[in-house]
Amino acid sequence: MPVTDFKLPEKYQYLNGFNSYHESEAIPGALPVGQINPQKCAYGLYNEKLSGTAFTAPRHENQQTWLHRILPASAHEPFEPRETATFDTNPGSIHGTHKWHQIPNQLRWDPFDIDESVDWVHSLRLVAGAGDPTVKSGLGIFIFSAGKDMDPHSAFYSADGDFLIVLQHGALDIQTELGKILVRPNEICVIPRGIRYRVSLPDGPVRGYILELYQGHFTLPELGPIGSHCLANTRDFQAPIAAFDEDTSNTYTLFAKFAGHLFAAQQTHTPFDVVAWHGNYYPYKYDLARFATIGSIAFDHPDPSIFTVLTAQSDHPGTAIADFVIFPPRWLVQEGTFRPPWYHRNTMSEFMGLIHGEYDAKTGGGFQPAGASLHNVMSAHGPDAGTHAKASEAELKPMKVGEKSMAFMFESALMVGVTEWGLTKCAKVQKGYNAESWVPLKPRFKRPEGTQVMNGSANGKLGDKSQAPHWT
Fold first, then answer.
1. Of 18-27, 109-118, 388-397, where does mean pLDDT reach its minimum?
2. Which residues are listed for Fe cation binding in this entry (predicted)?
């Protein structure tokens, strides 16, 4: 069946559909009928608009949600900077205390450690990225690793961008303003910019990857000649239903990630008091096992874009600020074809991670679950020597690859820089990546016997006039 067999059973109900206009009430009658902003809301609630795009964005791009809540989100004390010496997730050239390391080397990281001493907020480690959230341009790539629940009287949001969370270990029980979401390995979750949430850990310590999108929002890729379905289908995305707390007597701490830095404010009511909501700006999750793969059924190897789950396009159609691509279990049947990915240099930057199993294009053991690799703009890469040798001689019968495996890629048209933490402080960069992967490749070229090698030269003779106007 095209669903993951999760160890931890589902505990919540959801609304189905990607970018659908949903409405949800925890108490019947909480939402107004036929209008947006009544003079008096039902049950003494406050009406609040949450906008994910400009008011005047085109209708097909416009994202907004109306929240009917016990107290407005603005009812808090002023924000104050927190942990200014240690919490810096914006090392760009203008605002951060560190700079991006822009390097052409292929990089690979050993599995990142689990830190059981921190909660979600303090587990965020920026590894790589490009651009600047203050001008809503680019993206950041994070590793998270936590062992503690967030304090029950706290919440967190990022004003910098949308979080695409790829869980590798453990489970995330996420209480958001709009409802609750359970995220398990092989599921992803997107929490849009500004939405407040709290993370608890029902299955012990957690670890995973985050792509923070500083500009725009994720959409489903266009299908072109594929037709109307396959890849990630619209109905398989799940959004929470309204669920609220009622507490106006305890003090809560609201954490904000703003321009890459941490701020905190106090308030005397729960942030999770939304009784009802309607709109198309909300968190959602997706089971990667539901991805309907397509591929070649004759010969040659399609581009990896056929495995794109979500995309965030630049202002040039077909060129992404960020693509989220997966490599799930799938059948290969191509005839006369080298089946793993070819050797290539790409104008896109490719950051890869492994949730579980073994990636079929890297079988040497160096690319491990909870590890990562980065092949930046025009950095040459491809199958390691062992994978190439094996695939070159393999019997080309129908075969299933990626069994019990799930690799993924964050791909971007931007040149991705690496942070000081990602390059040195984490102490996970593999020094022998090239030596293990490609240095062992040997030349296999054999000059054909009895054949004159022209190398583009006419050997001093007059060129063939039939090639006019290019003859000499």
1. 388-397
2. 344, 350, 381
Is 359 one of the annotated binding-site residues? yes
Percentage of the chain with pLDDT > 90?
86
State how far Cα 152 lies from the chain centre.
Answer: 27
Q: What gap in Å lies between CA 359 and CA 361, rounded to an integer?
A: 6
Residues pairing with 16 in the sheet: 238
Q: Does the annotation flag 350 for ligand binding?
A: yes
For the chain, domains (ranges, CATH) are 14-288 (2.60.120.10), 290-433 (2.60.120.10)
CA distance 393 to 379: 27
First to last CA, the chain: 66
Q: What is the pLDDT of residue 472?
A: 47
- Cis? peptide before 443, omega within 30° of 0: no
Per-residue pLDDT of 310-356, as tens digits, reads 999 999 989 999 999 999 999 999 999 999 889 999 999 999 999 99
CA-only gyration radius of the chain, Å:
25
Q: Is 335 part of any known ligand binding site?
A: no
What is the per-residue DSSP string for 196-210?
-EEEE-TTS-EEEEE
Residue 454 has pLDDT above 90, yes or no: no
Catalytic residue among 95, 98, 153, 301: 301
Neighbours of 354 (CB within 10 A): 23
Q: CA-to-CA distance for 307 and 410, rounded, in angstroms?
A: 12
Q: What is the pTM of this model?
A: 0.94
Is residue 393 marked as binding? no
Average pLDDT over residues 388-392: 92
Q: Is 301 tagged catalytic? A: yes
